[in-house]
Amino acid sequence: MAAVKPKRHGPSMDMTAMCDVAFLLLTFFIMASSFKSEETVTIETPSSISEELIPETDVCMVSIDTDGKYYFGITDATQRDDFAKALSDKYNLGLTNAEMVAFTSLAEVGVPMKQLKNYVNLSEAQRIKVELEGIPLDSTDSELVDWVKTYGETFAGSKIAVRGDGNTPYPALKNLFDEFGRADLNKFQLITKIEKQ
Prior knowledge:
This protein is an alpha/beta fold. The chain contains seven helices and seven strands; from the N terminus they run αβββααβαααβαββ. A five-stranded mixed β-sheet has the order 4-3-2-5-6, with helices on one face. A two-stranded parallel sheet has the order 1-7. Helix 2 (80-91) packs across helix 6 (143-154). The relative contact order is 0.19.
């Protein structure tokens, strides 16, 4: 008589624990990451062969668009609240706590100080529609220098980064460098994209 072959069963594995681990990792990375704020102005930086990286923290960013308008931004979102308080106190802007919190959501500011209170009170949809005039910087009104100096006074050891579009008019850059020189702000980094070799 022939022997009866037992039915073979494939190995089974309970995947419940693996799914739990995957969702825990996903949740961790979502909660631990910080999202980049939307930029106020789009700037196509020129390329260079420099490979030096701009630090992630303690950096204020001065941007110049193709029309020669100046914008001020802070790369580290955690510093924006303290900066808004320092700016409000130093220049008597009268920003409320809610307005300072609204300031922290701005990657860059492109309005003069006198318009800052109204600008932060706008909704995000309204801010997109507003035509920004830029922060004043000329021989009669060097307000952008005041923004940069206030940032430097608020955060010791901070750095300045300058980001200009490839089509930014040269006089706008020269004006910025001249005003920085008059204010004794002689150390700053130019932001470029890495040139492909």
